Amino acid sequence: MILDVTGTASWAKLTEATRDMGSSKAKGAMYDYPEATNLNVALDQADLIKVMEVLPKIKVQPTEDGMMVKFARKWVNDRFPQDGGEPEIVDKDGQPWDKTKIIGDGSQVRVAVEVFQTKFGPAGRLLKVMVLDYVESEFEPEQKELPF
Fold first, then answer.
1. Does residue 28 sit in helix, strand or coil?
2. What contacts 125, CB < 8 A, 6 or more positions away?
3. What's the confidence (pLDDT) of residue 130?
């Protein structure tokens, strides 16, 4: 099943340059979580109900823009490699997104999430993001210096 919702984006970490680098207790972090791309989306009540019906365990946080949910996609999926990496990102006309433009907080987005069953219940995987109204980000991705 594909879940289709529209809302206001924040903390868009959707590309190689902006993805969440994960964390490891072995490296001194408090929690273990994998590298991933993710996107927080503030939803209106109708879309929030739609999400809660199919993903009842998703965490919801109240914000000024509405109720916020987080959609994610593992960067590396060992079992199903095609399900890892970047989600598809397009502009409002369906054309591939210019990845040098970082999606800023307040951008209006349409999100497609694949809902699938696990032994713990339903889960979601971020598949596609359509940027309907772009707001430029103030964030500059860190430039990584190579050792040679």
1. coil
2. 72, 73, 83, 113, 114, 116
3. 98
